[in-house]
Automatic annotation (TrEMBL):
GO molecular function: hydrolase activity; monooxygenase activity
Organism the protein comes from: Vineibacter terrae
SUPFAM superfamilies named in the record: alpha/beta-Hydrolases (SSF53474), FAD/NAD(P)-binding domain (SSF51905)
Names of the cofactor(s): FAD
Alphabetized UniProt keyword annotations: FAD, Flavoprotein, Monooxygenase, NADP, Oxidoreductase
Protein name, as recorded: Steroid monooxygenase
Pfam family, one: Pyr_redox_3
Family per similarity comment: Belongs to the FAD-binding monooxygenase family.
Sequence ranges assigned to domain Alpha/beta hydrolase fold-3 in this UniProt record: 623-825
């Protein structure tokens, strides 16, 4: 006989317990299926010495019921495993959840029955289960990774897995112990095992960054902040990037002096929180350079603590940026290596050959021990979902096959081909990169709200579409560009498991942003889901929920809140004042070798220019750059961060020109100034410290128009040699009927109305077909090689593409970069739109290549 329920839940940890509570509250019948003998999930199994959570107790706790918060007081800043387990037992009892859980029960098969529209589950204990909805609340770090070391079974003494620790504990007194693995589990266990064992040998493959936990009572200030306004605090946590309300710094590393950085680092180090260091400066975990400064300071702490220099050096992580691999919080970890009974074996120098009857043999020596502890981690994120059972979805598709090249989900919550299956904190959701307690509550609420919503609408099935899932995978991958996670081999990427597909699995775009996206899916008529009823009728609003790059999306959301006036409503002077004021709040560009200002003769009088010189010895190739601003706004210093970035990345001298602006100077003033400036720079390249010879011309937006026109004028009139042209989102034509103008007419910073205004101020309709205004209408043969960069959500996208296509058709060597998910202003927003880095790097490479080819 089947046990029939509305919902079956796998796992009785934080997720499973809250799910059962909410499902019951919603009047749904539910069963929990749990392999362990008790509640607790990963906190039931991970009982190794020193096991603690690395999120403070002020944050790592359920928040769904204020009365529960009143009823429970955590005793320390970071809760121990026994206390967390006691808490989860308390929760289970308080809400009477145990009666809905079948313990000591593993799901052996799960099969979607399309006719019955139900999941049929086989179990290792008790009756099979038939359920309408099947929810995997099986945890991200719950399936142990096999040790994968030869000879592991030959060892004569006891072996222990930190993730399957004996309930009665282990006494290592008088024993020689080996610990293999220095992730969080090893780093927490090692100091305590060292205190007990007669001798401890630690086998380390990869050193990890660890900072002192400074455990003790929860800090009074943190508790006071929470208790002052608990509801407000919890709400802020829900919308924060990591599920904890914390201040984020505005200053970038290069804006701080060395002393200021040191001061911030020491404060972060003594904060006793993982976030203390990652928020030391704005680019601490998002930029390789900003991170390198931080990582080196941590290595300094390790060298200061560990007395044996060789051991200290072996403990210093060198192969990954801080934060790209989960950093650890420890209590006396590095000090432990100063004990006479502790030895570190660096497996990078002497890899393990085999485990023998008496111990561990490396490439250099035999280490005899009485016990081995494997702190070797987990088959994270997907392990528990795939290992529990064969799961078969619609049409016989197996989850293992669907995920053979890495997990694919929609929102990390659902999988195409697997109707009525929900994953709690699945791959593709913030999960392990956020405070799990908050991430779990958000998922559980979303899942239960969908199930109850479907009940009210008379719907019986829900399934993600392939389109939505593929779009989500792209968005998840885009988000990884915001972090440095891709630069480390970790369990985040599957790299810790032999044969596992590689790719950053958690969603790195932040929990608050993610919550907003999940809500948006619902408000857009369940975008990307196919919903069906018992009669087989389906509805589907198909699509991708996020097509913008993640940081562009956040920026636009922030700007929308500011309710800024439409630029074209201001008049030229006020618009100029407004843009100057707006620029003051952007991050200053990074340092270059030297910045100097000067003047050069334009077509109608002197023009100011700003020169960016690389820090490397010259002479450098020269780029003449024309700024953006619709021929109306901006000046030689208005694209400062982009010019610095081009200068640094290309190692070329960038000369940014303050060409004349409309409406004071209408067409063709800007174009003629462009030509005059390029001629002057060509003639004076050596004088300004550049390499004489062919120049590169670059421009952005209206500056792209000036650059393109200048190349045509130089071809026709002579006066300079141009090695190549970089056109970033250029204005190339006065035609407003191309699709990108209507698709992106508003909402993406540069609007159609603004472009109308710019054109009106610059050029009368009668002149607009002149190639000096619309270079697309000019003769295009014989022009220098070009890189044309366009952005997907830009009114100017299609005319940029049209120009590139027309250049190619005219025999010009041209490459295109179509920046997906970006807006007109994205790529110039250096250090704000981090996802533009790849495009900026390509632009710099292109101009460098243009210049170098001409030298050869
Ligand atoms: P981790 O962080 O995956 O650490 C496992 C450690 O075991 C790590 O140092 C591994 O080295 C090492 N390891 C794994 N397999 C081997 C073999 N075959 N030989 C030698 N060393 C090996 O797991 P944890 O349990 O410590 O922590 C998991 C998360 O739980 C943690 O991040 C917190 O979020 C809580 P490697 O780095 O792969 O070279």
């Amino acid at each position: 006989m089947n046990q029939d329920v509305d919902v079956a839940v796998v796992g009785a940890g934080f997720s499973g317990l809250y799910l059962l509570h909410r499902l019951r509250q919603a009047g749904l019948s539910a069963i929990g299926l749990e392999t362990g003998d008790d509640v607790g999930g990963t906190w039931y199994w991970n009982r190794y010495p020193g096991a603690r959570c690395d999120v403070p107790t002020t944050d790592y706790t359920f928040s769904f019921d204020p009365a529960l918060e009143d009823a429970w007081t955590w005793s320390e800043k970071y809760a121990t495993q026994p206390e967390i387990l006691a808490y989860l037992r308390f929760v289970a009892d308080r809400y009477d959840l145990r009666r809905s859980i079948r313990f000591a029960t593993t799901v052996t098969t799960a099969t979607w029955d399309d006719t019955a529209q139900r999941w049929q589950l086989g179990t290792s204990n008790g009756a099979p289960v038939s359920c309408r909805f099947y929810v995997m609340a099986s945890g991200c770090l719950s399936a142990p990774k096999p040790p994968e070391i030869e000879g592991a079974r030959d060892f004569a003494g006891p072996t222990y897995l930190t993730s399957r620790w004996p309930h009665e504990g282990v006494d290592f007194t008088g024993k020689r112990v080996a610990v293999i693995g220095t992730g969080s589990s090893g780093i927490q266990a090692i100091p305590l095992i060292a205190q007990q064992a007669s001798h401890l040998t630690v086998f380390q493959r990869t050193p990890n960054f660890s900072i002192p936990a400074l455990n003790g009572p929860a800090p009074a200030a943190a508790v006071a902040t929470l208790e002052r306004d608990r509801a407000g605090y919890r709400e802020r946590a829900r919308w924060s990037p990591v599920g904890m309300p914390r201040q984020r710094p505005a200053e970038y590393s290069w804006q701080l002096s060395e002393a200021e950085r040191r001061e911030r680092f020491e404060r972060g180090w003594m904060s006793g929180e993982l976030g203390g260091l990652s928020t030391a400066w704005a680019d601490a975990v998002s930029d390789v350079d900003g991170n390198a400064l931080l990582s080196e300071m941590i290595r300094g702490k390790i060298r200061d603590t560990v007395t044996d220099p060789a051991t200290a050096e072996a403990l210093c992580p060198q192969d990954h940026p801080f934060g790209s691999k989960r950093p650890c919080l420890d209590t006396g970890y590095y000090d432990t290596y100063n004990r006479p009974n502790v030895k570190l074996v660096d497996l990078r120098r002497e890899p393990i050959a085999t485990i023998t009857r008496s111990g561990i043999r490396t490439a250099k020596a035999d280490y005899d021990v009485d016990a081995i502890v494997f702190a070797t981690g987990f088959d994270a994120m997907t392990g528990a979902m795939l290992a529990v059972h064969p799961m078969t979805g619609r049409g016989g598709i197996k989850l293992d096959d669907a995920w053979a090249d890495g997990p694919k989900t929609y929102l990390g919550l659902t999988v195409a081909g697997f109707p009525n299956l929900f994953l709690v904190t699945g791959p593709g959701s913030p999960s392990v990169l956020a405070n799990m307690a908050v991430a779990i509550e958000q998922h559980v609420d979303w899942i239960v709200d969908r199930i109850t919503g479907m009940r009210e609408a008379g719907q019986t099935t829900i399934e993600a579409t392939e389109t939505a899932q593929a779009g989500w995978s792209r968005h998840v991958a885009d988000c990884t560009g915001l972090t440095l996670h891709r630069l480390a081999n970790t369990w985040y990427t599957g790299a810790n498991m032999r044969g596992k597909a590689r790719g950053v699995m958690p969603y790195t775009g932040g929990l608050g942003a993610y919550r907003g996206i999940c809500d948006e899916v619902v408000s857009r008529d369940m975008l990307g889901f196919r919903l069906g009823d018992a009669s087989g009728n389906t509805t589907c609003n198909d699509g991708e929920v996020v097509r913008l790059q993640p940081d562009v999306r956040l920026l636009l959301a922030e700007m929308a809140k500011l309710n800024l006036p439409a630029m074209e409503s201001l008049g030229a002077d006020a618009a100029r004042a407004f843009t100057i004021q707006a620029r003051a709040s952007r991050p200053a560009g990074r340092p270059v070798g030297e910045i100097t200002d000067g003047t050069l003769p334009g077509a109608g009088g002197p023009l100011r220019y700003r020169l960016y010189r690389p820090a490397t010895p010259g002479p450098h190739g020269v780029v003449v750059y024309f700024h953006a601003g619709g021929w109306v706004l901006g000046s030689h210093d208005s694209d400062d961060p982009l010019c610095r970035d081009l200068c640094r990345r290309s190692d070329m001298l960038v000369v940014s020109i303050d060409y004349r602006h409309a409406p004071e100077h209408r067409f063709p003033a800007a174009a003629e100034d462009g030509y005059a400036a390029v001629r002057w720079v060509a003639q004076h390249a050596a004088q300004i410290g550049g390499r004489p010879g062919p120049l590169v011309v670059a421009g952005y937006s209206a500056g792209g128009n000036v650059a393109a026109v200048t190349c045509q004028l130089v071809r026709d009139r002579g006066g300079a040699e141009i090695a190549g042209q970089l056109l970033l989102c250029p204005v190339t034509d006065h035609d407003f009927t191309r699709p990108s103008y209507s698709e992106n007419a508003q909402g993406y910073h540069l609007t159609k109305a603004m472009m109308h205004w710019f054109w009106d101020l610059y050029c009368s309709p009668a002149d607009r077909s002149d190639p000096r205004a619309s270079p697309l209408r000019g003769e295009l043969t014989g022009l220098p090689p070009a890189l044309v960069v366009t952005c997907e959500f830009d009114p100017l996208r299609d005319e940029g593409i049209a120009y590139a296509d027309a250049l190619a058709a005219a025999g010009v060597e041209v490459s295109q970069l179509q920046a997906r998910g970006h807006i007109h202003t994205s790529l110039a927003m250096v250090d704000v739109i981090i996802t533009g880095v790849g495009a900026r790097e390509r632009m710099a490479q292109a101009i460098r290549r243009f210049a170098e080819r001409k030298i050869r």
